[in-house]
Design brief:
The protein folds into two domains: 156 residues, 3-Layer(aba) Sandwich (Rossmann fold); 166 residues, 2-Layer Sandwich (Dihydrodipicolinate Reductase, domain 2), CATH 3.30.360.10. Helices cover 30% and strands 30% of the residues. By secondary structure, it is an alpha/beta fold. Strand 4, helix 3 and strand 5 form a beta-alpha-beta unit. Helix 1 crosses helix 9, helix 5 runs parallel beside helix 7 and helix 5 crosses helix 10. The protein contains ten helices and 16 strands.
Length: 338
């Protein structure tokens, strides 16, 4: 395992999810240095002091991020939308991994363009899948049971009390309102849907049916590439979680349905449920931590070479699922004939 000299820079690390991600990184790799950065230095220091790490003020609107000229880092993680793309350019100038979690499927052209113009500069990990892979990796792991797949449907529930901070709310509003339509896969063809076609119903883990709508994280692109399924759709319900209906704190839910042909030759439809009793933040934090350790070569292989990556291209699905269980997620499988 390599020894990392310079800290991982966590921009937005004073927010709820960013702070948990920094803590997850430290839990997985206690010796890995971390720097918490944000616009409010006092808030960054408050989080950093709890973790025993350093804090810096950062400004995404500045080409140098407002950081000291002599500061050096091993990777850059961005938890807020970087409208200027300065953090990515910073990572490319220094030849270090860059990881982002805020882009919708309709937005990744900006990051792709940066890579195309400087393909040998740095590893770029596009980790804007739902909760940094919390639905994607279980889906990929369950998909291994199928020889061929007709349909993948992923429904997720974000509790109304679990949105997080202003940055998370801004991401949600931008992705749901700014994009003219949502990406799906229908009969093998990519299709952008909107209006009535985008409306759906989400069946919660306690059987309650809730209104939902098609949502546009990067999961559809990852799943289409990895599984060759003919139909893929991702829906989001922003409502009350089953745990809160029981009078408990909010949780986060993912309900995965896969229909196809098993390796035995049997045609089947299977439904899987993934729940974390503490909501979305722990799973997002874990996903970012796993992508970071992989990019730096701390687990799963050598440090990434310059390139453009999805997390599912660099992290083993079974490994991620095992870590999710370790961090408190529960998995339930419900079998049904197709």
């Amino acid at each position: 395992m390599p020894s990392i000299q310079h800290p991982v820079l966590v921009i937005g690390g004073s927010g709820g999810v960013g702070a948990q991600a920094a803590a997850a990184i430290r839990r997985l790799h206690p010796g890995l240095p971390v720097t918490i950065a944000g616009r409010d230095l006092a808030k960054a220091r408050a989080v950093a002091d709890k973790l025993g790490v350093e804090a810096l003020a950062a400004d995404l609107s500045s080409p140098d991020l407002g950081l000291p000229s002599k500061a050096r880092f091993s990777a850059v993680i961005v938890f807020v939308k970087d409208d200027w793309s300065h953090a990515l350019r910073f990572a490319q100038r220094h030849g270090i991994p860059h990881l982002s979690v805020s882009s919708g499927a309709f937005e990744i052209g900006i990051e792709a363009a940066r890579f195309i113009h400087a393909p040998q500069a740095a590893p770029i990990v596009l980790a804007s899948q739902w909760l940094a892979g919390a639905a994607l990796f279980p889906t990929l792991d369950y998909a291994k049971a199928f020889r061929s797949i007709d349909t993948i449907h992923v429904g997720v529930l974000l509790d109304e009390q679990d949105m997080g901070g202003q940055a998370a709310l801004a991401d949600y509003e931008r992705i749901t309102q700014s994009g003219s339509a949502t990406l799906t896969l229908k009969d093998g063809r990519f299709a952008w849907i909107a209006g009535e076609e985008a409306k759906a119903w989400y069946h919660s883990v306690d059987g309650v049916e809730l209104p939902a709508t098609a949502y546009g994280p990067l999961d559809v692109l990852s799943l289409a590439t990895a599984t060759e399924a003919k139909n893929i759709r991702f829906d989001l319900a922003f409502d009350v979680s089953a745990s809160r209906r029981r009078g408990e704190p909010f949780s986060t839910e993912s309900v995965i349905a896969i229909k196809g042909v098993l390796h035995s030759g049997e045609r089947a439809m299977r439904r899987y449920e993934v729940v974390h009793p503490q909501g979305q933040a722990p799973l997002t934090a874990l996903g970012v931590a796993l992508a970071t350790e992989r990019a730096l070569g701390l687990a799963g292989g050598e440090a990434l070479e310059p390139g453009l990556y999805f997390p599912d291209g660099i992290i083993d699905a079974a490994y991620c699922v095992a870590r999710m269980k370790e961090f408190g997620a529960t998995f339930t499988e419900i079998k049904a004939n197709g």
